[in-house]
Amino acid sequence: xxxxxxxxxxxxxxxxxxxxxxxxxxxxxxxxxxxxxxxxxxxxxxxxxxxxxxxxxxxxxxxxxxxxxxxxxxxxxxxxxxxxxxxxxxxxxxxxxxxxxxxxxxxxxxxxxxxxxxxxxxxxxxxxxxxxxxxxxxxxxxxxxxxxxxxxxxxxxxxxxxxxxxxxxxxxxxxxxxxxxxxxxxxxxxxxxxxxxxxxxxxxxxxxxxxxxxxxxxxxxxxxxxxxxxxxxxxxxxxxxxxxxxxxxxxxxxxxxxxxxxxxxxxxxxxxxxxxxxxxxxxxxxxxxxxxxxxxxxxxxxxxxxxxxxxxxxxxxxxxxxxxxxxxxxxxxxxxxxxxxxxxxxxxxxxxxxxxxxxxxxxxxxxxxxxxxxxxxxxxxxxxxxxxxxxxxxxxxxxxxxxxxxxxxxxxxxxxxxxxxxxxxxxxxxxxxxxxxxxxxxxxxxxxxxxxxxxxxxxxxxxxxxxxxxxxxxxxxxxxxxxxxxxxxxxxxxxxx
Amino acid sequence: xxxxxxxxxxxxxxxxxxxxxxxxxxxxxxxxxxxxxxxxxxxxxxxxxxxxxxxxxxxxxxxxxxxxxxxxxxxxxxxxxxxxxxxxxxxxxxxxxxxxxxxxxxxxxxxxxxxxxxxxxxxxxxxxxxxxxxxxxxxxxxxxxxxxxxxxxxxxxxxxxxxxxxxxxxxxxxxxxxxxxxxxxxxxxxxxxxxxxxxxxxxxxxxxxxxxxxxxxxxxxxxxxxxxxxxxxxxxxxxxxxxxxxxxxxxxxxxxxxxxxxxxxxxxxxxxxxxxxxxxxxxxxxxxxxxxxxxxxxxxxxxxxxxxxxxxxxxxxxxxxxxxxxxxxxxxxxxxxxxxxxxxxxxxxxxxxxxxxxxxxxxxxxxxxxxxxxxxxxxxxxxxxxxxxxxxxxxxxxxxxxxxxxxxxxxxxxxxxxxxxxxxxxxxxxxxxxxxxxxxxxxxxxxxxxxxxxxxxxxxxxxxxxxxxxxxxxxxxxxxx
Lengths: 497, 481
Description:
The complex is a heterodimer. By secondary structure, chain A is mainly α. Helices cover 74% and strands 3% of the residues of chain A. In chain B, strands 1-2 form a two-stranded antiparallel ribbon.
């Protein structure tokens, strides 16, 4: 008997490490807390190790691919390229951190086996999305992601969370129908749905004869992905979904869901159509305008929210579109900015949601108006929050600054001066909705003068501190090897863009 | 040397005769012996199907003449890959349902009902196996009649005689129409054998009228829109394991016969393109009507029954795709894949509904709150099987949907793609309605006190079916002949 060669085993192991953990956790008795936590952390750690090994391999130019024939001559393909590793490394790392957080957060609440089972499925789906070597495989896991997040969003079973879950599906299912229509259309038009560098897979299609079909398919694909990436006007579910437990918000906003949408848009623009064709058909310009509109609209709406998590959710609507803007601007530097923001936004936003969760869990504070003096009551949590908020605004030396810098330079490079205005206005708006909050927490006295100092417990605090520290480190050391920026440069050079 | 000539006739005979003999035996023996016998026969029948499938893969389509008399004098059975896999899958579904029924019927209706259920199920199994392998229009009639009678008996088990009677009446009228068509065909072309008919049928009024009558007949028996009215009350009121067999397997019988006629006899009449558009339109209406009705229901089983009406609509939509050269291959593969995966998924959902009725005493959606907390595996089964109805990956329904979409775009009939996509969105709504209540918590503090757990076999039987529906989503469609 011959074992699978490493180049095929590695993608499968990445997928199944969390899948098997999820299946076992489903069957666990509710009371087996220690075993469940061990499985969770063990699987997350195993995946991190695996990611580390594969990263070294990919950097050295190794290729990984495994395929399985599925339907209509198309295969399920799992393939590792630098772009997929960018997403996988992010989600594997954040999954680990979020698992620690979730174990602490859900202590003593019911149905934890169900929660962690779906949690693991969710990560499995995310890894599948990252590894997908063609659109068919991508869709396969994209739907799995929708279905495995739904039970997490409605986990609490209250009327409010059921409503949020319903709205989530109301956006997700029609969007995926559009996505599927686009994928089938592409398969019929070209005979495959492969991701290939610079969109060379479409090379055989005469653009002049099929301009209408190509545009229609692009709109269907991007429309289907935009619902997950919360692009205007398909963003409405995200602020609603903030009623979910904090670890789920982390998953939605940073690890998996919106990222899957943004990542899919990257794949379509870079690897299905290619930047040139997207530009020639007038598609990427439209996408850039839409992304810019989303950036501004999300920030304006965030300004008006009084609920902390809701404000953060609107901020995500705005921030994810930075990634899409970077992709759509189609210049080399803007591309770096967009890709690197995929990672930076994840790390900063997860910090913010962890902190919001800590504040709600420890002091039952949900409104911004109640945050006076929070810095004195929870100094560590608020320190992490402040760092991440400054990162979101884009102040140096945080990671957010790096993203915005490259986006701005990239915009000037392709002559899109209007983008600079968008970035400036958006940064001002970011400051306007984060700084008063930070001020309130540190400089105003607590409403209740007797309220003592009580920070969150360690399982909740440490994850937030780790990601906050990374927010600074990734900014400070952006130009050294082993940072997201270095990896993004590798993607741009070695790969395709 | 191939084993086929020695083994295959025995496997076919086993699948045809054993269930009927065992069904009779169940009247004589009872209790545990009969239960073991019924389950054993279902498993054997499934195994026979696998043997047949291996034989077909090895030696091509098999024709077996009864008593050595070849058509047109004798009667021939034909075993192709589809028939063989249908035998295998049907046996498996019956086995899972029998495992469930032995326990759940007692919980649902008190002792003794399973004594009546077993022989009916076995006769049904024998009838279906014969239906899959029949190769002449009269045999198709006889087997379809056998299936209908056993199915009516199953509906009557629950005590809803009105639904059973209506089913019977529609079945008889359908049978009459079909018989009349058979008579016309025989009068005009002198044979009932499908292979011979395919060569002899001439375009013209007689062939057209005969096939129209036969199609109307099988549409009535198979609950194809607009002759579907008997199905929701029958499947909704039958006892849950019976509904699982009826909605999962029996409901496809009518379409199976239609497909056989369609592929073998219809091309020669020259009427296929026009008929295909008409049947496809009726199918689109079935998808729309069945889904909207399913959305309106307040009881789980009736919702599932209307969903069957809608899913049968997709099968009819496949006909205009199969009728074109470009869409023939993927359209046919899609229809077959849909039949297989829907059979497993719908049976799983009815069994899961039966489990819930067994503990809660009813299936009103509004009062089924908290099931995901109380019986997570059953709620999970419902969701998993629901994915096939919605055509979401990784389920067999997704492969089917993909193939049908591919066929409609390839043949340039994008409007059928719109029907399929719209239908799956509506399916999303009713599956959501069927599943989402389980996630809501009843008012009050969540407690760790669990209600008495369901018997394991109830949960596992349904889950096994749902998992097979899921596994069909990972099997390459090209590997199914």
